[in-house]
Amino acid sequence: MSESSSSSSPTPGSTGTHVFVTVGSTRFDALVQTVLSEPVLDVLRKRGYRTLDIQCGNSDFDTSHLRRDADDHWQRAGDLETSIWRFKPSLKEDYERADLIISHAGSGTIIDVLRLRKPLIVIPNPTLLDNHQAELSDALAGLGHLRSSTVGDLPEAIEGLDKSTLVPFPQFDGSRFRELLDEEMGYQDHTSPGARR
Amino acid sequence: MTGTPGWLVAVAALTVGAILVRLYTVVTAPRTAKPSGRREAIERCSFAVFLGSGGHTSEALSLVSALDFNRYVPRTYIISEGDTLSMQKAVDLESAKAAEAPSTMPSSMRSDSRYTFVVIPRARRVHQTLLTTPFTAALSLIAAVWHITVGPLIAGPPVPEVLLLNGPGTCFVLCIATYLNRFLGLRSPKLIYIESFARVRHLSLSGKLLRPLVDRFIVQWPELVKDKRRDECHGWLV
């Protein structure tokens, strides 16, 4: 729940204590199940994380160790307080609150998270038929903007993550497309009065 | 003699020949980056974009947000039937842009309320069987032809000067309707396709389909540039 999570916001100087996991608009059973497994929970505790939120979408997972609060909302107390829910209209606040984000490989999620300068571990979903998503996460991992991992290697990916080595992702630069279209449509100057800020 | 009169055969052959020649010239017309005639900074340019829902819409609106809204007027957002989410996102962008427009500008010049929506049926719904796809695709094409070819002829709003596309499939029918205009010698929009940021090493299906047809084919990862005369990469655009 938001009250419990906000009370544990990171103290200045620490690497932060809140983890957010998101699977996007479909489902990713293996990711949710793995995040809830002891090896991952252990390494998260060891790295100092105290709260874990999981946006699970339509995933199926073992809920036997969880307390069901409401429809599509599960919780577990303890030294890694866990909260699981299916969907929200916007995840922006969840991204902003997180000190580490573990996500599916959707390009929208990746861009949003990286532009908020949040450490990101991406797990491409191997069950997707058209697995072009892995191409994007691999390419961005190659450039150092994020870490790409598999469900099986997630504990090692969390353990080995050194946030200081991540390369900041560039902010949106609209001038490229604006200049491209202006030129194509015959405008000679690239900064019209209305475009100036 | 019961055979077809010779003159009819000749007329038919000439007609078919003329159509083929016209088709050939339209399809093979040079698509190199040939800018439109020079425009003054204060001139306007009508603009249309297809919002293909989900990630397509997000990327398309991100591109649109970069534009000068006082320059690209009027704006037409083409959406698929039932895609209220894309419509809402476009309205949000328009409101945000209107709010940042300089307040010193006369109200007639303000960019708000200078946009419209055009709705066309989906060419193919997710999970739709292949059997019925030709019918929905035909309906989709009819709607596209109505808005791009017929409407502007019968005093509807004029056809936009540029049409921005980034997938998925339904944007193909807009491309076909544009080619119908070119075939008939009518004014037609310049077609600009931007491949998704998510495509690093392989083009999307819509990218492969539209690549030979559009005027500018722009990808966001250099590995996708296969033919330097046709494919362009200017880095990340979204």
UniProtKB/TrEMBL annotation, chain A:
It is an enzyme of class 2 (transferase). One of its GO terms (biological process) is dolichol-linked oligosaccharide biosynthetic process. GO terms for molecular function: N-acetylglucosaminyldiphosphodolichol N-acetylglucosaminyltransferase activity. It catalyses: an N-acetyl-alpha-D-glucosaminyl-diphospho-di-trans,poly-cis-dolichol + UDP-N-acetyl-alpha-D-glucosamine = an N,N'-diacetylchitobiosyl-diphospho-di-trans,poly-cis-dolichol + UDP + H(+). GO terms for cellular component: endoplasmic reticulum. Involved in protein N-glycosylation. Essential for the second step of the dolichol-linked oligosaccharide pathway. This is UDP-N-acetylglucosamine transferase subunit ALG13. It comes from Polyporus arcularius HHB13444.
From TrEMBL, chain B:
It is a single-pass membrane protein. The chain crosses the membrane at residues 6-29, 130-150, 162-180. It comes from the Eukaryota. Belongs to the ALG14 family. Keywords: Endoplasmic reticulum, Membrane, Transferase, Transmembrane, Transmembrane helix. This is UDP-N-acetylglucosamine transferase subunit ALG14. The keyword Chaperone does not apply. Involved in protein N-glycosylation. Essential for the second step of the dolichol-linked oligosaccharide pathway. Anchors the catalytic subunit ALG13 to the ER. Its main location: endoplasmic reticulum. Heterodimer with ALG13 to form a functional enzyme. GO terms for molecular function: N-acetylglucosaminyldiphosphodolichol N-acetylglucosaminyltransferase activity. GO terms for biological process: dolichol-linked oligosaccharide biosynthetic process. It is found in: Endoplasmic reticulum membrane; Nucleus membrane. It holds the Pfam family Alg14. One of its GO terms (cellular component) is nuclear membrane. The keyword Glycoprotein does not apply.
